[in-house]
Specification:
The chain has about 450 residues and is α+β, with helices and mostly antiparallel strands. It has two domains: about 5-95, Beta Barrel (OB fold (Dihydrolipoamide Acetyltransferase, E2P)), CATH 2.40.50.140; about 120-440, BirA Bifunctional Protein, domain 2 (2-Layer Sandwich), CATH 3.30.930.10. The protein has helices at about 5-10, 110-115, 125-150, 200-210, 245-265, 270-275, 280-290, 300-305, 325-335, 385-395, 405-410, 425-430, and strands spanning about 15-30, 35-40, 45-50, 70-80, 85-95, 150-155, 160, 170-175, 190-195, 210-220, 230-240, 295-300, 340-345, 360-370, 375-380, 415-425. Strands 6-10-11-16-15-14-13-12 form an eight-stranded mixed β-sheet. The longest helix is centred in the N-terminal third of the chain and has 23 residues, at about 125-150. It is elongated and about 85 Å long. The mean pLDDT is about 95.
Length: about 450
């Protein structure tokens, strides 16, 4: 493997034989030499290479334009300019792959809207390079959080026959010719879909391995064109045996704090860049999220506070209705001024698997709301009592035959258990300050968009 620019820039001392391979960000020529600013994606910073007119390969310097791939051999020396510690004095230059004047990223300052139309090239910009390096590190931090706490990673299926959320937002998977709908003849001899959540399968493993988590792609055919919804997104779903709603909320809050801290500590360059160019309040908000306690509010109290807020919302606030994103954001941004976990929702607006509270009207559900986004986590304690689960399923018109294996968990060694789903893209929006979900996922799938 070649040494990356990140590694060269971290060198303790000058170095005689270095090889740098990357893409030209800019080139400046003078009579006797040229400056090449190279970036190889390993970090935000470029490595400046000074190429004298006489060095082998200089005859092709005119083709070393913005976007071209080059290889430079030379010496790593202290940079006299002072803007960076090191620069490279080239002893040889090789044009690896040219990029002509049609390369779309010639200049800085393109809008995110334009850059979405060149999603195959946008990771080569400072902004998207930063976002996707952060995405990778945060993904690792998610695994670390769980592995440090004794959770096992379970790979739940992407193809499934069950609708976990019961919202009817599933993409169908079929090999039947268009027009045919005899599912007995279909590939799986039944209707199949892309999963909306790994939870139900996750529960089977939690009641075997104790603490588990899934972290994978999930799919929702909800036709909502918002800045917070994607048709394909990654969800982090822990599931814990012998755990109640309080333990569930504690874990979710601890995880959001842990990941905010990870952003502060592990991506300092990207944080500085994002804080400067994307969201000037980012660092302060991350410090706040990582360091200060969150609030908790029962749903009934949240509704009461909203109704007494004196605010006119687009959607009215009524007990028994889902909180809209404007309500969620007002609670966390204006009322609490910190992340807040709303819990104990009316059973009518929540899925069949949530545990019925003793009041008979609410379920042990929770949503964690954060400023700028609203809901980032949705979870609950699960109904572990066979008779109550059956009644819930009947109320939701779910057939016990299709979920027989899920019901079985309540027949054999049933235990109180709980879990949640943390949307990975929404988490990335929180820690990068990026306000559109389309900009934190490599190739966004939204209604009407599946090009790349
Ligand atoms: O609240 P949701 O629908 O919960 C579940 O799917 C549960 N089965 C999770 C569980 O208890 N294991 O989704 C969980 C989170 C949301 O809070 C949100 O962060 C994210 O997933 N999410 C989306 N993110 C992007 N685009 C969408 N269309 C999303 N829908 C949900
Ligand atoms: Mg939810």
């Amino acid at each position: 493997m070649n040494t990356t620019i990140r590694e060269w820039l971290a060198m303790e001392s000058a170095c005689d034989a270095v090889v740098v391979q990357g893409w030209v960000r800019t080139r400046r020529d003078s009579k006797a030499f040229s400056f090449l600013e190279l970036n190889d994606g390993s970090c935000l910073r470029n490595l400046q290479c000074v190429v004298d007119a006489g060095v082998p390969g200089y005859d092709r310097i005119a083709e070393c334009t913005t976007g071209a791939a080059v290889r430079v051999e030379g010496r790593l020396v202290a940079s006299p300019g002072g803007a960076q510690k090191w620069e490279v004095r080239a002893t040889a230059l090789e044009l690896v792959g040219g990029a002509d004047e049609t390369f779309p990223l010639q200049k800085k300052g393109h809008t995110p809207e334009f850059l979405r139309t060149v999603a195959h090239l946008r990771p080569r910009t400072n902004l998207y390079g930063s976002i996707f390096r952060v995405r990778s590190r945060l993904s690792y931090a998610v695994h670390r959080f769980f592995q440090e706490r004794g959770f096992f990673h379970v790979h739940t299926p992407i193809l499934t026959a069950s609708d976990c959320e019961g919202a009817g937002e599933m993409f169908r998977v079929t090999t039947l010719p268009a027009g045919e709908d005899d599912f007995a003849k279909d590939f799986f001899a039944r209707q199949a879909f892309l999963t909306v959540s790994g939870q139900l399968e996750g529960e089977t493993f939690a009641t075997a391995l104790g603490r588990i988590y899934t972290f994978g792609p999930t799919f929702r055919a909800e036709n909502s064109n918002t800045t917070r919804h994607a048709a394909e997104f990654w969800m982090i779903e822990p599931e814990m045996a012998f755990c109640d709603l309080a333990g569930d909320m504690e874990t979710a809050e601890a995880q959001v704090k842990y990941l905010a801290r990870a952003m502060l500590e592990e991506s300092p360059e990207e944080l500085e860049f994002l804080n400067k160019f994307v969201d000037k309040g980012l660092r302060e908000r991350l410090e706040f999220v990582a360091g200060r306690p969150f609030e908790r509010l029962p749903y009934a109290e949240a509704v009461d506070i909203l109704q007494r807020s004196g605010r006119t919302f687009e959607y009215p606030v009524e007990y028994g209705q889902n909180l809209q994103s404007e309500h969620e954001r007002w609670l966390t941004e204006e009322h609490c001024r910190c992340p807040v976990t709303v819990f104990d929702y009316p059973k009518e607006i929540k899925p069949f698997y949530m545990r019925l509270n003793d009041d008979g009207r609410t379920v042990a559900a929770m949503d964690l709301l954060v400023p700028g986004i609203g809901e980032i986590v949705g979870g609950s304690q699960r109904e572990e009592r066979l008779d109550v689960l059956r009644a819930n399923m009947a109320r939701h018109h779910l057939s016990e035959e299709s979920y027989w294996w899920y019901v079985d968990l309540r027949r054999y060694g049933s235990v109180p258990h709980a879990g949640y789903g943390l949307g990975f893209e929404r988490l990335l929006m929180l820690v990068t300050g990026v306000s559109n979900i389309r900009d934190v996922i490599p190739f966004a799938r939204t209604p009407g968009h599946c090009e790349f």
